[in-house]
Amino acid sequence: MDWDNVRIFLAVARSGQLLAASRRVGLNHATLSRRVSALEEQLGTRLIIRRTNGCDLTPEGEVFLTAAERMEAEMLAAQASIGRVDAAVAGTVRIGAPDGFGVSFLAPRLGRLTARYPELKIQLVPVPRSFSLSQREADIAITLERPEQGRLVSAKLVDYTLGLYASADYLAGSERPETVEALKAHRRIGYVEDLIFTPSLDFSSEVLRSWNAGFEISSATGQTEAVRSGAGIGILHNYIAKGVPGLVRLLPEITIRRAYWTTYHESARDLVRVRTVASFLAELIVAAGTMFD
After folding, report:
1. How far apart are CA 41 and CA 241, in angstroms?
2. E strands, the chain, where?
3. Whose CA is closest to 257, among 228, 224, 235?
4. Mean pLDDT, 10 residues at a time, over the chain (293 residues)?
5. How far is CA 219 from CA 96, 102, 153, 289, in A?
């Protein structure tokens, strides 16, 4: 079996589109399609259903994807064991991160890493959702919980806290709440409830059983901006809010605690570029000192 064709199949399976896969592996669309067809002919089964807006795996394709992932992991391990993988820190590493951590903390700091390793390209994808490491949507994911399933390498990156905030302008026109019960008389900002993809994001229920926000935003940075503008009271990441002028901490005895985890697929364990980026993330946290307290 031609490993190169298997590699191309993996690119198609992970991107969900032939065109996107062709860009990823550096082949034109027609050549890539022929290579996938050649693999299907060799296996004697159809692996991919081609559609106008992308492609899906057949049941046989899903089965073969698992086998192809194992083949890839063995190939990477074999190459690493003889010193032929990632001798230098080069190539692309995609980091998937929650938007608050990605935009507010990582984005201003990752330039130091690319300056240190000019052949390394970093892709930061700060979106408020989970990532599929098995499908390589990210090489390293910053997660809010430690994954319990899959062949993943995971380590706690840092604990962080959240608290209640309002803007000074908002408080100038409203009576400052001194109790949790008093929050009910104020405009409140929160997440869009049906888009909360993990229980770790359900901060508000730890303050009020029914937060009942009048303004819902599925973005930590968006919520920070809404609170800063005077739209109401919100539960914000302390490490972000402390750096925003005009925000006032309310009811400081209320502190919500969470953690970020660094996670990558087991097959990437021997990739120097991935290990280097993971180590740099830990380095950033040490340099941040008490920022996340």
Report:
1. 57
2. 48-51, 54-57, 91-97, 120-126, 140-143, 152-167, 188-190, 215-216, 233-237, 247-250, 256-265
3. 235
4. 87 84 85 93 93 88 86 69 60 90 96 91 77 68 84 91 97 94 96 81 89 92 97 97 96 96 83 89 95 92
5. 15, 11, 27, 25
- Cα radius of gyration (the chain): 23
Residue 175 DSSP label: P
Determine the Cα–Cα distance for residues 157 and 154; give it in Å rounded to an integer.
Answer: 9
Same domain, yes or no: 128 and 181: no
Question: Do 133 and 219 sit in the same domain of this protein?
Answer: no
8 A C-beta contact, residue 100 and residue 220: yes
Residue 86 placed within a domain: no
Reference 81, options 225, 247, 271, 235; nearest CA is 271
* Under 8 Å between Cβ of 250 and 204: no
Residues 244 and 174 in one domain: yes
Token pair, residue 283, equals 């380095």
Domain-terminating residue out of 25, 50, 81: 81
Token digits for 217? 């935003």
Instruction: Report the alpha-carbon distance of residue 54 to residue 22 in Å, rounded.
Output: 13
Cα–Cα distance for residue pair 87/105, rounded to 1 Å:
29
3-state secondary structure of 63: helix
What is the DSSP pairing of strand 54-57 with strand 48-51? antiparallel
Tokens 């190459």 belong to which residue? 79
